[in-house]
């Protein structure tokens, strides 16, 4: 009987995958959404555009609750 951890004499090591931040595309994307009417700011590369949109939306509609959605990207790679 072979020792534990060997596969019938095949010395193949499993490939090790790792997740790393993906810097090939855009950076973190920020978006704001109204929790009352679900209208949204659209995605932006910085948080300032969505924040300005929230304040304008409050002035127009009286809605005061918002959800901030921040998306960042990862890529799996194998060493
Ligand atoms: Zn709204």
Automatic annotation (TrEMBL):
This is DUF7848 domain-containing protein. It comes from the Bacteria. InterPro entries: DUF7848. It comes from Streptomyces venezuelae (strain ATCC 10712 / CBS 650.69 / DSM 40230 / JCM 4526 / NBRC 13096 / PD 04745). Residues 11-77 form the DUF7848 domain.
């Amino acid at each position: 009987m072979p020792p534990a951890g060997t596969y019938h004499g095949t010395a193949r090591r499993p490939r090790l995958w790792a997740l790393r931040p993906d810097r090939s595309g855009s950076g973190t994307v920020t978006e704001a959404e109204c929790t009352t009417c679900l209208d949204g700011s659209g995605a932006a590369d910085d948080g300032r555009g969505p924040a300005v949109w929230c304040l304008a939306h409050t002035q127009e509609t009286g809605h005061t609750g918002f959800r901030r959605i921040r998306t960042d990207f990862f890529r799996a790679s194998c060493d």
